[in-house]
Amino acid sequence: MANAAKRKGSAWETAIVTYIRAFGLRAQRIPAGSEDDQADIFVAHEAWPAVQAKNCQKFELASWVREVNQQALHASRACGVVWVKKRGTTDPGGGYVIMDGATFMHLMGAKRET
Fold first, then answer.
1. Domain range 4-107, its CATH number among 3.40.1350.10, 3.50.50.60, 3.20.20.10, 3.40.50.2300
2. Which residues contact 70 (CB under 8 A, 6 or more apart)?
3. Burial zone of 88 (CB within 10 Å; 0-12 exposed, 13-18 middle, 19+ buried)
4. Could you give the C-alpha distances from 97 to 34, 53, 78, in angstroms and in order?
5. How far apart are CA 61 and CA 42, in angstroms?
6. Cβ contact 28:40 at 8 Å
7. Inter-CA distances, 106 with 40, 41, 48, 93, 99, Å
8. Which residues contact residue 107 at a Cβ distance below 8 angstroms, ignoring those fewer than 6 apart?
9. Using CA atoms in the order 84, 86, 87, 90, what is the torsion angle rounded to 10 degrees?
10. What is the full per-residue pLDDT of the chain (114 aa) written as tens digits?
11. What are phi and psi of 104, to 5 degrees?
12. Which residue from 52, 48, 78 is spatially nearest to 65, judged by alpha carbons?
């Protein structure tokens, strides 16, 4: 892989998959360039969100969350999250998981009162 950014991104995706598997879940990377972009990582549990991995210097929260929410629709998931690498560590447990408020409420099992 000649592109350094792609190499960094692939390494971070692999680290996240390995981390998720350590919890006994089935997870895999989604190949780049699939017909409908369905995020970067698929977890074989219907309650899991679509997971987009980011290993970047500059955080672009609004565009990342917008992108992963669209990817969640393509993946038939209720929501999506962005798992961002924290500088200085390769441990996904030390990274950041970013989402919008609606996703947070969904993951917490909250139901809107009507």
1. 3.40.1350.10
2. 37
3. exposed
4. 23, 9, 16
5. 21
6. no
7. 21, 19, 11, 21, 11
8. 49, 79, 99
9. -90
10. 468 888 999 999 999 999 999 999 999 999 876 667 889 999 999 899 999 999 999 999 999 999 999 999 999 999 999 999 999 999 999 999 999 999 999 999 998 887
11. -60, -45
12. 52
- C-beta separation of 55 from 8 below 8 A: yes
Residues 6+ apart with CB under 8 A from 68: 39, 50, 51, 52, 80, 81, 82
pTM above 0.70, yes or no: yes
Token digits for 54? 């980011």
The pair of structure tokens assigned to 28 is: 């895999």
- What contacts 91, CB < 8 A, 6 or more positions away? 15, 19
